[in-house]
TrEMBL record:
<keyword id="KW-1133">Transmembrane helix</keyword>
<keyword id="KW-0472">Membrane</keyword>
<dbReference type="InterPro" id="IPR018154">
    <property type="entry name" value="TLV/ENV_coat_polyprotein"/>
</dbReference>
<dbReference type="Pfam" id="PF00429">
    <property type="entry name" value="TLV_coat"/>
</dbReference>
<keyword id="KW-0812">Transmembrane</keyword>
<feature type="transmembrane region" description="Helical">
    <location>
        <begin position="78"/>
        <end position="105"/>
    </location>
</feature>
<protein>
    <submittedName>
        <fullName>Syncytin-A</fullName>
    </submittedName>
</protein>
Length: 149
């Protein structure tokens, strides 16, 4: 009911600016226009930007890379710096993978192949022994083991 009354008042007083225009700062829903060009929030932000620039100038720290980017790219400096940093991080990840990941993967693959080949030679030996037993082969002293491996 209170909301409906408020809506009715706002509709009746719309051409005069609504209820809050009549009461001004005392209105319970009054929102001051602090974001206007002459508003306090805008003034505060401008003051903070000026203070930040002043502190950066007076810090005594000069970054020659930043000056070079400023001279080279002008207003695109921030975009180009972020692009170059992204490329640098991507390159670092690739180098890390190349120096660490690839040798580890290579060692794992070599171990896998060796294990597969040794398992295959074990199976071949088992088949050979099985076939030799079925055929009654008993001359084990004359077998050349180097041929089987």
């Amino acid at each position: 009911m209170a909301f409906q009354n408020r809506l009715a008042l706002d509709m009746l007083l719309a051409e005069k600016g609504g209820v809050c225009a009549m009461f001004g700062d005392q209105c319970c829903t009054f929102i001051p226009n602090n974001t206007a060009p002459d508003g306090s929030v805008t003034k505060a932000l401008a003051g903070l930007r000026a203070l930040s620039n002043l502190m950066a100038e007076d810090s005594g720290v000069e970054n020659p890379l930043e000056k070079w980017f400023e001279g080279m790219f002008g207003k695109w400096k921030a975009f180009m710096m972020s692009l170059f940093m992204s490329v640098a991080v991507f390159s670092a990840i690739l180098i890390t993978c190349g120096c660490c990941g690839i040798p580890c993967m290579r060692a794992l693959i070599v171990r896998l192949i060796n294990r597969a080949l040794s398992a295959e030679s074990d199976r071949a030996m088992q088949v050979f022994l099985f076939l030799s037993e079925e055929q009654g082969f008993n001359d084990w002293e004359n077998i050349d083991v180097s041929v089987m491996s």
